[in-house]
Amino acid sequence: TLVRFEENSSSPVSFAIDGFTLDTFKENPDTEGINNSAVCIYGDYSAGMDWWYKIKMDASAEYIIEPKTADHKYLHFLVYRDVIGRSEVQVYDGENPEARIYQRQFSNRTTNTWEEIVLDLTSSEADLAGISGKTISNIWIMTNLDGGAGHFYYDSFVLSDSKEPIGLVQTLTDLGNFENNWEQPIMSAVTQTSGATATITDNPLTTDKLNKTANVLKYERPAGAEWWHSLSLYMDGFIGVEAPNTYLHFMMYNPAQQKIAVVINNVAGEEFSREIEPTQNTAWEDYVIDLVASFTEPVLSNIRTINIRIPEDASANTYYFDEFVINEDANPRTPDVNIDNLKATDIHVTANNGFAQIEGNDIASVELYGINGALLQTKMVNGSGKILLPLPGNGVYLVKVIRTNGSTVICKVVK
Asked: Helix, strand or coil for residue 50?
């Protein structure tokens, strides 16, 4: 622990400011959440201040900050702000305090609540080497509020060998479907360019076979936005990813059929990107990202944000998103199908000794689905008689029978 502000007199780390008012011993504004300490550091950021004004955490003259081991590289700290703002952490060499060795930007995700920030001090922006094999003299935090005013608090600066957050972690599969406003655990959406909006709206394609839900997320992006501007979906705390649930699904209706990039940020500030190419522009599609195999390094870590980025040269367009989930299914979700048996048919489907048994005439093919809509097996028939499809395990399955005249019969079987 570098400093928690409870016992300032004995701390080998001093705090100062450059450009604005600082109060090292301010009462904690929210002791009910992840930070129950009594006091913290407080900064008053006035309107019109320059971006390079900063909070400076400096080792006292006779001290340096030395990681215990090479793995002791993760800087944890808590932040509480009344405005959304982008900040930058800079770290300086213990042997040469003029030499910056680490630099990375971060943003708070919501206002008026404590949030935990975790940064890997060996993974720097701006081609800096990071702290590997080095000691630390200074840690500075600079904030850019685009000329606006803000009040913010910091607390509990810790160096650790774990990037796992000390605060709120959730291991969930249903990330958000927007039916109840900003449904947890997706807390909020932030657009990172002027003129862009993110709102919950009515589903524009309620007759679509894939997505018949009432509400969806609508993202309107203006023309000329730079490539790094994005729609950012911030988690409530962090979402833990645990095997076998390693597949991120989301639905998108993209009328412009414009390519997007899905960028995932984890708790350590690492960024992973995957391009998505829509195949149609008149219907919802389900997209799947393998959080293990889709990237050079697996994203098996706690997820902080899911960002949607559009190419820089894209014209002004509207995009719709819905049904963010993480599960163990590598296949895209398929349209809901009617599981009621037709009353009048010569097709009969039953469960028989671990198989789905299909009997009837003029059958072209049969398909077996999981109850979640995932296609498990297809068998071409082109005739009549008895067909057997093995059922992989106990549960409820759907059997779709396609007749030679194009009509279908869908039945439910239970093993």
From this structure: coil
Write out the DSSP string of 212-242.
Answer: --SEEEEEEE-TT--TT-EEEEEEEEEE--B
pLDDT < 70: residue spans in the chain: 1-24, 61-62, 172, 181-184, 269, 295-300, 335-346, 371-372
Spatial CB neighbours of 339, under 8 Å, sequence gap ≥ 6: 398, 410, 411, 412
How many angstroms separate the CA atoms of 231 and 229, rounded? 7
**Phi, psi for 113 (deg, rounded to 5):** -155, 150
> Is 75 in contact with 119 (CB distance < 8 Å)?
yes
Pairwise CA distance, residues 165 & 156, whole Å = 12
Strands 136-144 and 21-27: unpaired
Q: What is the pLDDT of residue 18?
A: 65
Q: What φ, ψ does residue 309 adopt, rounded to 5°?
A: -115, 145
Distance, CA of 22 to chain centre: 33
DSSP track, 64-127:
-B--SSTT--EEEEEEEESS--EEEEEEEESS-TT-EEEEEEEE--SSSS-EEEEEETTS-STT
In sequence order, the β-bridge partners of residue 391 are none
Provide the terminal-to-terminal Cα distance of the chain, rounded to the nearest Å: 55
* Distance from C-alpha of 191 to C-alpha of 171, rounded to nearest angstrom: 26
d(CA 235, CA 110): 10
At 222-243, the pLDDT tens digits run: 887 777 778 888 887 788 888 8
Alpha-carbon span 264 to 306, nearest angstrom? 5
Rg, Å, the chain Cα set: 27
CB atoms within 10 A of CB 316: 13
Q: Are 262 and 308 in contact (CB under 8 A)?
A: yes
Rounded distance between C-alpha atoms, residue 85 and residue 218, angstroms: 23
Largest Cα separation within the chain, whole Å, is 89
Q: Which of 352, 333, 335 is nearest to 408 (CA)?
A: 335
